[in-house]
Amino acid sequence: MEYHCVLFTVLLQLIVQPARSRPTITPEGPQLIVPLNDDFSLHCQSDSSVRWLREDRPTRILKEQRQGQVTVLKVSKAGPQHMGKYSCREEASGEKSSIYVYVKDPENPFRRNIMFDFVVGEGETTTLPCLATDPRMTDLHLQKCDGQPLPNTLRYSSSIETGITLEDVRKDFEGCYVCVGTLEGNTVKSGLYQLNVRLVPDAPPVITLGQPQRVLLIQGEVLSLSCNTSNVNSDITIRWKAPQGVVRSQKNKTKFYAFLCADKGFIILRSVNNSTKRVRAGESLSLRVVMDAYPKPHTFSWSYSGVKLTNTTDHVITSRSHGNRYDFVTLLQTILNTVPHELFTPLLIGFVAAAVILILILIVLSYKYMQKPKYQIQWKVIEGIHGNSYVYIDPTQLPYDHQWEFPRDKLRFGKILGSGAFGKVVEATAYGMSKADTVMTVAVKMLKPSAHATEKEALMSELKVLSYLGNHINIVNLLGACTIGGPTLVITEYCCFGDLLNFLRRRRESFYFTTLGEDSYYRNLSSCLIYSPFHFFLCLFLSVGFLSHCVFIVIFNKFVIHLGDSYRDSDAVSEIMQEDGMTLDTEDLLSFSYQVAKGMDFLASKNCIHRDLAARNILLTQGRVAKICDFGLARDITTDSNYVVKGNARLPVKWMSPESIFECVYTFESDVWSYGILLWEIFSLGSSPYPGMPVDSNFYKMIKEGYRMESPEFAPSEMYEIMHSCWDADPFKRPSFGKIVEKIEQQISDSTKHVSPGSHEESGSHVQRLNSFGSHITATQPLLSSNDVFLEGTSPRHPPV
């Protein structure tokens, strides 16, 4: 037997794929500790393209620099807002590495928050943002503000990086809570958090078919089905179920089906609702409702659990003595031993009692009269300075140029733009203001029929002051007046986009933040809309002329806006809606700051003090031109929470300088202080100054001790330096408005400087003073005689001859 050996050779090639490594972050470690106001940078090394993200702000973009295989993220002047987990993620594979950054603040063991009230649905999970600024903090736990024990069913988890998380929230969890921890052997506490729990209705969604439930079709015929669903809790998920083989298509939320005879059966539509809407702590929730109704509804409102919601503001009232001055009364009593007359004694008692009652009545009436707000002009024109005291010009003594007169019969009044305690501002159409055939939209100030002689004299004084000041692009200019043949009417420019405060607040959702230089930047996508579990309305804050309105919009084929007791259709507000659709960025904020500084520099050159400079007193018109105004009679300060009772007056305390608060002194330098507060409002996008601080004795004490606000989140460091210089305790160390204009000019682009007035306008300084009432009046001409002012697309007019 013969054997054959066959040799097989098998070659195996082993290919080992290297495992993809995660990006590497430098400095190494899970956390980085940065002292307050220090700069820091994070380096991420990876072979592929990466991107830096903040995990607590997933929608915001961080600007980084690519240097070879290393991507560098730089942050200057670290503050509490820079705390959080930073992640470097590969865009191709999704692999990421993270590092937590602590910004160590010795004075604040917990990061300071803006939001302290939380509204949570029952059964939901919420997190109290008790974030430690020092990683050495231990034993983080939750306590009730009043020291009472926690509810038995309350369960929570704690972390110094994420805060305290409450799960399965119940109604009995409502109350005030505080986070407590241990740092270097000392017990530290966070701010107070108010937890409000709302009941979530447990009800299935309602489905309504637009066709009969039984339909007879011919073979090949197309069936169009539509249904309406409603739900009291939140969004719902809709799912169609049809016989097998049915061809479905979708167009504009309407389902179309092409059926065959063999496809007979039931088509079922199911909807599932989600009873919770989770929002990250500190973020805003945007809700939108589209509604069709016939006839059109006339009123709209938000409600919760059947209760209509309204905006409420706590009015803080304080009173204190000044100068520690006391009055002492010495009573000298002489006793005489006399025999009373039998008839005289009862008459004397009755007379004394009647006199006492009469005196009490007179005291009560006098007190009420003194407490009644009086209409006065905030703007004051200085005649001269004697030492530290200012001598003001009596506006009633200023002359009035009758070239400003405008015929009453050429005014057509429209909607009421604003109403105060003494008068109102009305939108009007002026015919022939510049030429015989021109039509111009204007704002007209007028008194109410109940106004007294003092209010009439004050309105006339305001007219004289405006005519004295002359024109400037950054103030609300005088266009004309009607003083003959009827009540006084003051005609001014109409600013179509309302006041700066509400403009900033409604533009938060589209704000795009960029720092000056190479620092990191974020894109702010937070929204500022109102949510209710039963109704969804879009709240648009319009501010036209001299009063802000919260307007509820319902979307039909065209917009209908409810303003006061009347309506304005979409054609009339198309410009406003177009402006609201534009984005807002840091350049715009710098532009607003620059324009207001230019306007205040102009007022200072005219020896005029504003005394109430704030974002609510800045109006915007076409091209986002900012104009300084005095609301005067159009604002009822008794219902405005920004004006706090101090003594026998209501004052905007949070905008006032220390010398104005404690010494009742108003100067150019006190206006500079108010301008610093205005800058804080602008770069915080309309937040209230000194957030969370009521105006009480502690507030006055902190101002005296030198407390100043921190830099707002969106302020470049250069702008915060200007703010801080405006808040110098020594008024003479504060910069003038001319210096402020020069500093801001170094930061803005050339395209922004177009808002400045023409070169022919005169600009003065604080050293120029008035020697007599008429020393500067002759140089002031009626506004529309110049060629550099254009209003609402019209040409300037010349005063009538």
TrEMBL record:
ATP binds at residues 418-425, 445, 493-499, 616. One of its GO terms (molecular function) is cytokine binding. Residues 23-100, 204-240 form the Ig-like domain. Mg(2+) binds at Y390, N617, D630. SUPFAM superfamilies: Immunoglobulin, Protein kinase-like (PK-like). One of its GO terms (cellular component) is plasma membrane. The active site is at D612 (proton acceptor). It is found in: Cell membrane; Membrane. It is a single-pass type I membrane protein. The chain crosses the membrane at residues 343-365, 534-556. Its EC number is 2.7.10.1. Keywords: ATP-binding, Cell membrane, Disulfide bond, Glycoprotein, Immunoglobulin domain, Kinase, Magnesium, Membrane, Metal-binding, Nucleotide-binding, Phosphoprotein, Receptor, Repeat, Signal, Transferase, Transmembrane, Transmembrane helix, Tyrosine-protein kinase, Ubl conjugation. It is an enzyme of class 2 (transferase). This is Mast/stem cell growth factor receptor Kit. It comes from Sinocyclocheilus grahami.
